[in-house]
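Appendix B. Raw example, untouched.
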Amino acid sequence: MLDLLLVVPHPDDEAYGAGGTLAEYAARGKRTGLLTLTRGGKGRNLGLCSPEELRAVRDGELRAAVQVLGVSEFVQYDYPDGSLGEAPRDEVVGIVSRHLREWRPRVVLTFPPDGSNRHPDHVAAHQIAYAAFEAAGLAAGGSSL
């Protein structure tokens, strides 16, 4: 059982959105989980690497963040970055729903309906998480980022 599960589309969403919450839960001995739905290959490289190296760089940063934040359970998927909403909805919802049933988190965090900044992948992550919550037979109404 997890105390908290975060469902996000991109590597780095865990850090800027809920990093403090994940770290605080871990510091209190609580079990946390993270589902990242894409590899973030279409993000901006900010001159730190070539566009071809971006996925690998973001992967390394994400794995380091998981360690630093004390995340107990972590899974990353490779759905299309920049077009998560076009991924096979039933498949993605089914995967997230399976993790919800397996990990039985007490709290699930994701983006609010507008994605915080209207990013289409953030909006899609919200829709996927809520559909998975329903598919898993859990009562919606938890917290969101």
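End of appendix B.
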